[in-house]
Protein: Aspartokinase
Amino acid sequence: MALYVQKYGGTSVGSVERIQAVAEKVKGFRQQGHDVVVVVSAMSGETNRLIALAQDMQTQPDPREMDALVSTGEQVTIALLCMALKKIGVDARSYTGAQVRVLTDKYHTKARIQDIETERVRTDLDQGRVVVVAGFQGVDTDGNITTLGRGGSDTTGVALAAALKADECQIYTDVDGVYTTDPRVVEGARRLEKITFEEMLEMASLGSKVLQIRAVEFAGKYKVPLRVLSSFKDGPGTLITIEDDEAVEKPVISGIAFNRDEAKLTVMGVPDIPGVASRILGPISRANIEVDMIVQNIAADHTTDFTFTVHRNDYDKAQGVLQQVVKELGARESVGNNKIAKVSIVGVGMRSHAGVASKMFDALAAENINIQMISTSEIKVSVVIAEKYLELAVRALHSAFDLDASDTVSE
Ligand code: ADP
Ligand code: ASP
Ligand code: MG
Structure:
């Protein structure tokens, strides 16, 4: 008999029928003698609907009230799922984040979980109940409702699994596992049997939204066995594993991630003197804008062009900040582009193979795709390209690295 924490995402609870199907699935686990804690998202589209409502009310709503609003989506699904379970003879009880006491810090709309009380959950499990917990939400020490950022129900699931020392945290979604790349973009994408935490963390950070980044961080830190599966069809899914000796035989590239959420800004003709980077990025960081990639290049005339990327939502704000910076630095001008995309190849096998980046650049060159920026780490290479070439680039790289479903896995 095992203890499973099962998280069902928005599409998996998107209608009364889908919620009933989840209830049947949970009943199946109970009949096999397992204990089950379920974490649910809001019904698909509901969180977006609530955010749009808020924006109709006010351009920049108070984050505290935003959390009070968007957390309601999950409260609906916990209650409906418990009703569905009871209807088919499974005893169940619903809890909001605050009722469990998913304690978070005070950063509204992007709070981090600090502690989870497990007493009530354990008591219910001991009494033979299924416990249904609202994902994505918590409460701070002053009793304010907080939320964990988009996709945050994954993190609730993993954190609860860690706190309860569950045998496995199962993330049920609308695809049957983690694929070599988003299967909605590349038809030939392949499901991975396993992927390491390290690779999954890169994939999630670089844009693969199948798991929230923090959920992967949490699972890695607390060694929570984590599996991504489909709620629509049976199958083994993908196991996220701790890196082991098998890594030696792993393919060079495990997956391709991409992200359309970035924008690029360049300050041109900056005098080449010490302190410039800090005088450009200092005001950006003080405006609470996160910077991702950075490139600086000295030209023959002893000026530099300084380029960096930010989240697309911060593009206008960053442009405003740079106008002032240009004046203060005596730079020529600042320019920007928000029609860019970042494509990344990820794989722990890269560590022991040379020439991975050049193979990537060859594949992009063969499609006439211009690379605007490059960044590398031990297990990834990322490039910024024009957004209109994104899908072409992902497909070309998927084939170049032999990831297509019809290919055999290369060394
Ligand atoms: P949920 O609502 O269940 O949390 P999400 O929409 O957050 O589901 O995540 C599942 C989606 O992630 C899939 O529908 C798929 O389009 C996308 N996705 C992106 N990259 C990958 C990948 N490498 N493998 C699988 N799915 C991916
Ligand atoms: N409902 C929230 C969202 O749409 C949290 C989640 O689904 O994980 O982002
Ligand atoms: Mg999700």
